[in-house]
Amino acid sequence: MMIWFFLLLAGCIFSLGIGLWVIYEHFFTTDIPAAIGHTMKLHILHCTFLLAINCGKICEKLGICSMPKFVRFLLQSLPIKKDPKLMVKNLCFGTVPVRLYQPKTTSVSLRKGIIFCHGGGMVFGSLDDYNSVCCYLSRDTDAVVLSVGYRLAPEHRSPSASNDCMAASIHFLRNLETYGVDPFHVILCGDSYGGTLVTSVCQSLMTQQDLPKIRAQILIYPYLQGFNFQLPSYQQNKNVPFLNQNLVISCIFQYFDINPSWKTAILNGAHVPPEMRAKSEERMNVHNIPKRFKEKGYQHMSPGPFNEDAYHENKQILWTMNSPLIADDDIIAQLPETLLVSCEFDILRDDALLYKKRLEDQGVPVSWHHIEDGFHGVLITFDKKCFHFPCSLKILDIIVHFIKNL
User: Fold this and answer.
1) What pLDDT does residue 13 have?
2) 201 φ, ψ (degrees, to nearest 5)
3) Whole-model pTM above 0.90?
4) CA gap 363, 284 in Å, rounded
5) 356-372 burial, b if ≥16 CB within 10 A, otherwise e?
6) Three-class SS of residue 122?
7) H/E element, 247
8) How far is 236 from 295, CA to CA, in rounded Å?
9) DSSP H/E element including 373
10) Sheet harboring 366-375: ordered strands across?
11) CB-neighbour burial class of residue 339 (10 A; exposed 0-12, middle 13-18, buried 19+)
12) Cα gap 144→185, rounded to integer Å
């Protein structure tokens, strides 16, 4: 009996310790901007998220599983909602798991097709996590949606996610007739790192002359570059949920298998060689960000002295496939009509603003929507009942409107 008592006591003390640490981490290191509205919801959701992250870190220290795998396990326990108006099939394109959404109603013509790449920072996210988003898009646009279940870190490092999304996209494009999709109306869509994958895949497909042309790309608060981590939004929103500076770096380091000791060098820009700095400054100049986004909490910081070791160890984050914002003008000029959605309280906000400028400079039609009360990851809250944020539905409606008018 005494053994069980002490085990129970130890468990209680352990749980209390985790709870106190989560409370400290949330209330003393996190910024919850009042302009977001519904701040109590965000407090609760972020504390829950931190609890999952910290329990995952403990599991990682004990050698049970990685932190991302633990968080994914928790997310898999959430129920999946079925939509009676859709046919949903789980398929595999080669080794890549995909989920196909098709409206049950008959159509007199071929439907639009949407290839969807989910977000999650390369370490989180799944077909199930974005099931409701894909159902909404398929139902409200009367389109065929293909959701790609690409491999995640740390189990699968770069370039596994890019390879999976490219392979799934090419397979789909070569078999559009099978799925009743109009080859002139295929759209790529993704949020967060899914937006990175969409951007990279879209740029690569421009050179594939034997495939149907992509009609449009939809990028929801995408990560687009690994050159400059001192942009205004990186400074202003570095402690705003759900994607703060530490989590951005952690996700990047896990996917690209980067040693944590390089964190300071990368944050300071010391990993960028002089010849690439000139190129990046031209294409990612802070002056291209509208003035109103630089008025609060931003101080220009010059990159640190070039560290050759940092470059050689981490140069893959500078490759165009991983930093598509830096692509050459002739590639950018070939890109299709684009919908860009940015959020005010998102650390990645300025990536979208800079890409908007690059696209416009090359004559690409751009529809830009800025969500003044938005934050990173808000999209998937749209069906979370009491924890949903109104701007999540606004983003979905923007996407639906854009697709319907193509």
Assistant:
1) 55
2) -65, -45
3) yes
4) 17
5) bbbbeeeebebbebbbe
6) coil
7) helix 245-256
8) 10
9) strand 366-375
10) 86-93, 96-103, 144-148, 111-117, 181-191, 216-220, 337-345, 366-375
11) buried
12) 11
Give the residue carrying structure tokens 């989590």. Answer: 247
Residue of 125, 151, 311, 347 whose CA lies nearest to 234:
347
Torsion sign over Cα 210, 216, 218, 222: positive
Counting every residue, how long is the chain?
406
Which residues touch 384 (CB under 8 Å, ≥6 apart)? none
Which residue type, as a one-letter code, is found at position 74? L
Q: Long-range contacts for 198-202 (Cβ within 8 Å, ≥24 apart)?
A: 198/115, 198/117, 198/165, 198/222, 199/224, 199/324, 199/325, 199/355, 200/162, 200/165, 200/320, 200/321, 200/322, 200/324, 201/117, 201/162, 201/165, 201/166, 201/169, 202/335, 202/336
Each residue of 55-87: pLDDT tens digit?
899 999 999 999 999 999 999 988 898 999 999
Longest CA–CA span in the chain (Å) reads 76
Strands (DSSP E) contained in 303-356 are 337-345
Q: Which tens digits make up the pLDDT trace of 187-218?
A: 999 999 999 999 999 999 998 999 999 999 99
CA within 13 Å, CB half, 208? 16
Would you name the residues annotated as active-site residues? 192, 346, 376
Mean pLDDT of the chain: 93
Q: How many Cα atoms sit within 13 Å of 195 on the Cβ side?
A: 24
- What distance in Å separates the CA atoms of residue 132 and residue 115, rounded to the nearest whole number? 15
What are the Cα distances from residue 170, in Å, to 48, 201, 218, 349? 38, 10, 18, 30
For residue 315 the two structure tokens come to 């140069």
Query: Backbone phi, then psi, for 371, in 5-degree steps?
Result: -95, 105
H helix runs in 62-176, sequence order: 67-76, 131-141, 160-174
